[in-house]
């Protein structure tokens, strides 16, 4: 269940997109939203308005995702009270979207609903219950 919730947020929902720009600007630095940098702990998931709280091995700590200033990220799962890097790659972020490029070149784009010093809320569509119809899925992360 733990893997489903965290991976759902960053792997399965969102749009698979590719962009090609003809911008000849010399600045090749990825766009980073400074509010996003740091560690974000999974808090809950909201599927079609129904809140599903995180409830997996809190005695050992919560799974989290870490966004770094250099445009890299890593997703950490807590297994047996030890950290395990589940996924890593690069990201770009604007005021409205987070684009993750996962090792292996998969790209996921998610809408940012809320981003402030304490809360990150992302949204996308996914068939969470495997009934053939996609549901609106929000994933909430907090700093603590």
From TrEMBL:
Keyword Transport: no
InterPro entries xrefs: Lipocalin-like (IPR024311)
Residue stretches making up the Lipocalin-like domain: 36-120
UniProt entry tagged with the keyword Acetylation: no
Keyword set, alphabetical order: Signal
Domain of life (superkingdom): Bacteria
Pfam family for this entry, one: Lipocalin_4
Leader sequence segment: 1-18
Designated name of the protein: Lipocalin-like domain-containing protein
């Amino acid at each position: 269940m733990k893997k489903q919730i965290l991976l759902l947020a960053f792997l399965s929902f969102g749009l698979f997109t590719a962009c090609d720009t003809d911008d000849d600007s010399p600045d090749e630095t990825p766009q980073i939203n400074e509010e996003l940098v740091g560690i974000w702990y999974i808090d809950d998931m909201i599927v079609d308005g129904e809140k599903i709280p995180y409830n997996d091995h809190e005695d050992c700590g919560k799974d989290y995702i870490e966004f770094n200033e250099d445009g890299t990220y890593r997703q950490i799962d807590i297994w047996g009270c030890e950290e395990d890097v589940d996924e890593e790659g690069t990201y770009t972020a604007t005021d409205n979207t987070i684009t993750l490029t996962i090792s292996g070149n998969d790209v996921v784009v998610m809408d940012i609903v809320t981003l402030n010093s304490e809360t990150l809320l992302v949204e996308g569509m996914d068939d969470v219950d495997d009934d053939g119809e996609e549901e609106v899925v929000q994933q909430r992360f907090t700093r603590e």
